Each structure stands twice: as structure tokens, then as C-alpha cells.
């Protein structure tokens, strides 16, 4: 559960020695300024918490939600070892539209890996539907949604592949790959190629701020960052103090120096 920033009392701050293991700024106000920078790349712009990357330091986002700007043109994120292109993001709804990087390049894969989400961070959004791509199948294959197409598998050319609706195992085929797509496009299989549908991506919802803590923080002109000590979202205010849970309820973090440290 995401909670508040640093549940420490002033006495604890004055009595306990803190150290920065990786990076330490001279004041809390610098944390506020650093986490005010947004990630932008290509069509994806002004992305804030819980994401980090580029000019946004790691502490300004949630672990596992680093965005990378590939070739200064394409925003990407890695989930469970697979790279995804970030097509767009709705931060108010916490919805991201993703497309698998390997499938965007082509449906005939070198490695047959199904799409798997980190369920601690993501869940499929409404309107996302699973399809299964079967490779190396005997012809014909009953129940397929499309005509067979060919892929080179294990050095064999002209191997039949099919698309089925839902999560289906390989059965008599050599391999199967689970591919989420936009549900509105499923009926277009046949009119559109599978490559065209996959490039449109699918939607996921990120699950980092379910209790609205960060929204309340930002509404009070605070900025969210990640407190690795307590493994939770934190709120820092323009004056450098901690917000609990928002800057209208600011807490004086350290009476004498106005400094606190984050651990990595």
C-alpha cells in the first residue's frame, strides 16, 4: 500500500545519522527541483511519477518503471525481460498503450516468448484482448482466425502459422506466443494483417498509486518521489518539507538543517 513520505518524527531526524549511498543533494529543495523534470521522447511527452528515466533521476520514479528514449525518437520500457514501445500514456487514468518491440519488427520471431506483465505494477486495461499466434502447425488448423502465414522455424521454410482468439497452448504446433491486442481490432483480423494490429499495441493500467496519494500531493503543488527506506511513494513540498499526504499538511522534516537522505 502506498503511504506517506517518511513517517519519522523530528526527534528521530535529530538523533539518527543518515548517509547517502549513491547520490545526495544539498537540500530538500533540490529534490523538489530534480523531480520537477519530466520524461519526454518522440510523441510521449511530459511524463512524471511513477516513471523515471532520461533527466528524471531514479528516486523520482518507481522501481521497474524506467523509460528509455531509443534513438531520441521512441519511448521504451522493459517489462519482465521484454522491451515495449510506449505509444501513448494517459496519466490521469494511469493507462499506457504498449507495443512489443520484437513483434513490431515482424511476426516471425527468433524467440517464442509470450507477453507476461509484472502484476505488481501492471494489469491489462479494459478493452485489451489476448490472441495466440501458433507457429509450425499442421495444415489446416481448425478454429484459426486468419489464413495461414509462413515463418522460418528451426531452419525450415514455409512453416504454417495461425492466429487464434484467447490464450491457447501450442497443441500440435511447434510453439505458441500470447499476444495482447486492442479488442476493437480483433474483428479486423483478415482485413488487417497481424503486423498492423500488433503495431497498434494494447493497453495496460499501472497500479502504483491506487490510493490517490500522489494525485493529492501534486494537487497541492508537491512532487512525488520514491522512498526506498519505506518502499513507498513520498511527497516533497516547494519549501523542502514533507507533505503528509499533501503540502497543505506539510511536516517540518528536520528542524535545524532541513535535510533528509534517501537510500539506494
From TrEMBL:
It is a single-pass membrane protein. It holds the Pfam family WAK_assoc. It is an enzyme of class 2 (transferase). Residues 170-240 form the Wall-associated receptor kinase C-terminal domain. Residues 1-21 form the signal peptide. GO terms for cellular component: membrane. Keywords: Glycoprotein, Signal. Residues 35-100 form the Wall-associated receptor kinase galacturonan-binding domain. One of its GO terms (molecular function) is protein serine/threonine kinase activity. It catalyses: L-threonyl-[protein] + ATP = O-phospho-L-threonyl-[protein] + ADP + H(+); L-seryl-[protein] + ATP = O-phospho-L-seryl-[protein] + ADP + H(+). It is found in: Membrane. This is non-specific serine/threonine protein kinase. It comes from Opuntia streptacantha (Prickly pear cactus).
Amino acid at each position: 500500500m502506498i503511504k506517506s513520505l517518511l513517517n519519522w518524527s523530528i526527534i528521530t531526524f535529530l538523533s539518527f545519522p543518515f548517509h547517502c549511498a549513491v547520490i545526495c543533494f544539498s537540500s530538500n529543495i533540490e529534490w523538489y527541483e530534480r523531480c520537477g523534470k519530466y520524461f519526454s521522447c518522440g510523441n510521449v511527452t511530459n511524463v512524471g511519477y511513477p516513471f523515471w528515466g532520461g533527466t528524471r533521476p531514479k528516486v523520482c520514479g518507481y522501481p521497474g518503471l524506467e523509460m528509455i528514449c531509443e534513438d531520441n525518437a521512441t519511448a521504451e520500457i522493459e517489462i519482465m525481460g521484454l522491451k515495449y514501445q510506449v505509444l501513448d500514456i494517459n496519466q490521469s487514468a494511469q493507462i499506457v498503450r504498449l507495443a512489443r518491440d520484437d513483434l513490431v519488427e515482424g511476426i516471425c520471431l527468433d524467440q517464442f516468448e509470450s507477453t507476461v506483465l509484472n502484476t505488481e505494477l501492471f494489469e491489462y486495461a479494459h478493452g485489451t484482448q489476448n490472441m495466440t499466434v501458433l507457429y509450425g502447425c499442421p495444415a489446416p488448423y481448425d478454429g484459426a482466425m486468419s489464413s495461414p502465414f509462413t515463418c522460418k522455424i528451426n531452419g525450415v521454410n514455409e512453416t504454417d502459422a495461425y492466429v487464434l482468439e484467447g490464450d491457447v497452448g501450442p497443441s500440435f504446433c511447434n510453439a505458441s506466443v500470447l499476444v495482447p491486442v486492442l479488442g476493437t481490432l480483433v474483428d479486423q483480423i483478415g482485413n488487417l494483417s497481424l503486423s498492423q494490429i500488433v503495431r497498434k499495441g494494447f493497453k495496460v493500467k499501472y497500479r502504483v498509486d491506487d490510493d490517490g496519494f500522489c494525485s493529492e500531493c501534486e494537487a497541492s503543488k508537491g512532487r512525488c518521489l520514491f522512498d526506498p527506506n519505506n518502499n513507498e511513494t513520498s511527497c516533497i513540498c516547494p519549501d523542502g518539507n514533507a507533505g503528509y499526504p499533501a503540502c497543505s499538511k506539510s511536516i517540518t522534516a528536520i528542524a535545524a538543517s532541513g535535510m533528509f537522505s534517501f537510500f539506494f
